[in-house]
Amino acid sequence: MDIDPGFLEFESRLSRPLNLKIPDLQHGGRLRHVLFASQFNLPLLDRLGKVADRIRTIAKSREGHRFLNSLLSHKRAMLYFSQPSTRTFLSFSAACQILGIACNEVRDPATSSESKGESPLDSIRMFSSYFDLVIMRSPVSQFAECCAYMMNELEQEDRRSVPIVNAGSGKDEHPTQALLDMYTIQRAFEFRHERDSSQWSKYDEMRSKYPNVRRGIDHKIIGFCGDLRRGRTMRSLAQLLALHQEMTMIFIAPKHPSLSMPDDLKQLLMDSGVRVLEADSFETPIGGVPVIEQLDCLYMTRIQTEHNSAQDKVDFAAIDFTNYKLTRSLVQRMKEYAAILHPFPRDKEFGEIPPAVDRDPRAHYFRQARNGMWARAALLAHIFDVDGAISDYYEDYTKRKPLAPP
Amino acid sequence: MDIDPGFLEFESRLSRPLNLKIPDLQHGGRLRHVLFASQFNLPLLDRLGKVADRIRTIAKSREGHRFLNSLLSHKRAMLYFSQPSTRTFLSFSAACQILGIACNEVRDPATSSESKGESPLDSIRMFSSYFDLVIMRSPVSQFAECCAYMMNELEQEDRRSVPIVNAGSGKDEHPTQALLDMYTIQRAFEFRHERDSSQWSKYDEMRSKYPNVRRGIDHKIIGFCGDLRRGRTMRSLAQLLALHQEMTMIFIAPKHPSLSMPDDLKQLLMDSGVRVLEADSFETPIGGVPVIEQLDCLYMTRIQTEHNSAQDKVDFAAIDFTNYKLTRSLVQRMKEYAAILHPFPRDKEFGEIPPAVDRDPRAHYFRQARNGMWARAALLAHIFDVDGAISDYYEDYTKRKPLAPP
Amino acid sequence: MDIDPGFLEFESRLSRPLNLKIPDLQHGGRLRHVLFASQFNLPLLDRLGKVADRIRTIAKSREGHRFLNSLLSHKRAMLYFSQPSTRTFLSFSAACQILGIACNEVRDPATSSESKGESPLDSIRMFSSYFDLVIMRSPVSQFAECCAYMMNELEQEDRRSVPIVNAGSGKDEHPTQALLDMYTIQRAFEFRHERDSSQWSKYDEMRSKYPNVRRGIDHKIIGFCGDLRRGRTMRSLAQLLALHQEMTMIFIAPKHPSLSMPDDLKQLLMDSGVRVLEADSFETPIGGVPVIEQLDCLYMTRIQTEHNSAQDKVDFAAIDFTNYKLTRSLVQRMKEYAAILHPFPRDKEFGEIPPAVDRDPRAHYFRQARNGMWARAALLAHIFDVDGAISDYYEDYTKRKPLAPP
């Protein structure tokens, strides 16, 4: 898709370094627009994780669900997905429903007014006329960013302006995927279990088996496997993890220019103090121990064959990909508390994670999907400033709970 | 569509006889998953019919509508229709809205993650991550059944699991169509009328004209006309009707292997004690009286020309189909209380029921469509165990009604 | 698309003059079906404008929004858009959501039952089985009208019947566009401003600069520019404006049989007492002053190139269209209070209104879009007879407001 001439107006802003852009997307200590994973810093990730936890707990009761449902029932959202993505779409839609936000959608650009010559920015401004939030996924890089700048200008002119949430834009950013990945890893390393009691806790059991293990993300060894160059997901996630202390990251991918870890990202991570390692397979020994046995967390990805060049196709035929696929027996050699994630969909033909692994307690990828719904609900609650009301209700709710179980 | 290798896991369960499967789909005396028309037995049909009647009555008042609307407002449904069907889709959507269930939909499989190599079972499990109910229509036989088994396994492993409702699967089953057809026939033979009073009742009037008529489905003569072999609707309905006493069924169709009554079904019905007759036309005399004058209920169907083979096309050109089309004058010869049903859509070119019949009081097919909404709402209320709350409200409501009419 | 044979039944009604049809579409002093812009007379336009203003004000507070949301939460609407239109669709959808009406949609006729041979009237009757309102947009002229007559007949037979709202039908009518245009012009000539006070008001300022200006639409000079023949919008709007006193209308378009003002409309307007003028460009002097400097309101339209014939393409290449495009400097020569409208989408290639004009206070076209939502919500409130409840709440609300600001 060609860049729209309307974007030129924002050219100087688009070409700034990322850290200069971030203040433009905030509003009184809150995110106003969500465009970049790097808008999430550690305090904010912690805060959003807590809100997500509270929403999840409150939603367990019917009464709590209704409280949530009433919070933003005066808001209407537009989900504008000109690039298809069922999972992200449905997860945002569910998040809106949880908070009572009425959803509207345009998924097929062919039916939109753009076929009558309308500019993409006019389309977004139309959406902002009817709706209170635009969640957008687009194949065009920086389109969401332009929209956010347009909204900022409208606000300055005292005209109607609404928040923009990037649900995946071109090849560059997919911030809410990074948010849900971080939330899933946070939760995994809380080592909580529903049977935790004063007699037994999962954390105590794990410490008895792995004396060095500690709560939280600091000090953990994270593996990334698969399509490390073309998956925008991994790129954002690695940078957010790098905000933590004493991280080790092991990148497991074929040594091929379309798949292996990009040098710029490696450098970025090392500059943040991450210990960066590369491996050819799960069996590569690191300090004498095979990678697979050392990981606290393994982030698997799908080989994005739809982006293969002609040359890629030829090259890939010569690669032994079995080194980059999990098996039940590999998983059984992992630490007992290790967490396996995958942004999904997984590829049933390729089989990077065979269904036989699904029942292993280390498989976190289905709950990761569900976490996407809670994390996105938390983000929307944050944007619309109802996270305080959620905390108040939660406090009340957990006090009452022993007396009146849901 | 090829069978997904993921289905193989369930092969032994899929090949069991139907009666062994049914207990797997129940949960504490309630339907958990709805896959087969034969899950409905007479007590359940009676119970669901009563719930549907109550919902219909309560919904007449604005206050009652709001009560219903709040019942399941903490639930979210996925309507996954990879085989299109406007009527079934809209009817389920309306049923959900009546009970306050938030709806989500995937109607176009091309936009789904399956295009990225995702297995159909992964897609369903994703839906179950975000939603509390999956209503699915698929061209693949037994797909819904596999999903139900997967959900049962997840439940056994204490993982998230949701009910599966089959909204039409391949050529085999469309249980909620059978449910709404039964509900419509139940209501037709209650002989109730809104002008019923102590002075006059429709039932009394009918008995004065047809002394042998009795309330209920037992003893009735039911005609089926049209495409009796390729319409899954008719097959399920006939078997549910066969649960009643002293039934007569007359099958009216051309003697052609693609259209006429299948022998196995004929045998099945006779084994259940049904008196089975076949006729070439509405005029075929049975005991000296033309079929059309004897029927208590006539179930018309559309010739599903989209399933014609090349040979069918040739053969059908030689058939005189006028024998299988209603006319106003045929209808006027039917019993006054007879009920004409059609699962719809009807074919305006073929004209199995011309619009001229629509105003006849025997035409039940439009209210049959609306019954689909009530019957499906009743089914969802049953699955989520709020039918008791509906009964309580109804009791209250009908007591108050003379004092405070809606 | 061919006329459906089912329409023939209504032929005698379809061929009546418009004024004889209007009473058929009313119900106890209210609109029942909305098909024609000419159903709106001045008192009704005034009434709907007031309801829209009240809804807009009430919706500013969360509490008010919830009141509106509960008004019609017992209603379900079908948006049947077999001709695509994102803007009209979304605006109706937002209007429904504001009043709590649950929305359902069929946008793709390929997925509908019509592909199985169903007649269009059967489809509409199916919708009316499940939903309480059908909002429809169709490429077929008079289809919505047939549907309204069908609904009237059903009502007479005591069968289920619902209101039909025409959201654009063929080339002839788009009444709710006319309604929102009128509402926008009404508001523009109220000369209200949010900073109005006893010290300063916008109206006083304008009167000091333009001594002859008066509140209201009477006496105004309205320009129409662009595609005056193929845009149904302009046709309806001109006729509604003609209901006012002492109107002047100036039509600015190339002298080409596909674009210029139709003679029949010109005559109609003159018969209503409108002073009708034509101009070649914004610079054409009228009484010695260029048109652009005289206009109180300018209604711009898009050249609908998708309807060009082969001959049009040849002809248009020879026309200098720069005369029919606004520029920033043209706009700056307009009266300070003048209002520029455009039904949108505008054509970014053609550029009838360049984005540089958007920030001018005379640019009303974005708020015009948002007015569409309020005006449609007002219309739905009128149809379902809840405008009285809105007025009552509003009165209460504005009384309380100083004490408890939203």
Explain the layout of strands and helices.
3 copies of one chain form a homotrimer.
Chain A: H1 11-14, H2 18-21, E1 26-27, E2 30-31, H3 42-58, H4 62-71, E3 76-81, H5 86-98, E4 102-106, H6 120-130, E5 133-138, H7 143-156, E6 164-169, H8 175-188, H9 202-209, E7 221-225, H10 232-241, E8 248-252, H11 263-271, E9 275-279, E10 285-286, E11 289-290, H12 291-294, E12 297-300, H13 310-317, H14 328-332, E13 339-341, H15 365-383, H16 387-400
Parallel strand pairs in A: 3-4, 3-5, 5-6, 7-8, 7-12, 8-9, 12-13
Antiparallel strand pairs in A: 1-2, 10-11
User: What pair of chains forms the biggest interface?
Assistant: B-C, 31 and 32 residues
Note poorly predicted spans of chain A: none
SSE topology string of chain A = HHEEHHEHEHEHEHHEHEHEEEHEHHEHH
CATH architectural label of the largest domain in chain A: 3-Layer(aba) Sandwich
What does this structure look like?
- By secondary structure, chain A is α/β, with parallel strands linked by helices.
- The first copy, chain A, has 2 domains: 200 residues, Rossmann fold (3-Layer(aba) Sandwich); 195 residues, Rossmann fold.
- Helix content of chain A is 40%, strand content 13%.
- Chain A has 16 helices and 13 strands.
- In chain A, the strands form 4 sheets. Chain A has a 5-stranded parallel sheet with strand order 9-8-7-12-13.
- In chain A, helix 3 packs across helix 8, helix 3 packs across helix 16 and helix 5 crosses helix 15.
- The termini of chain A are far apart.
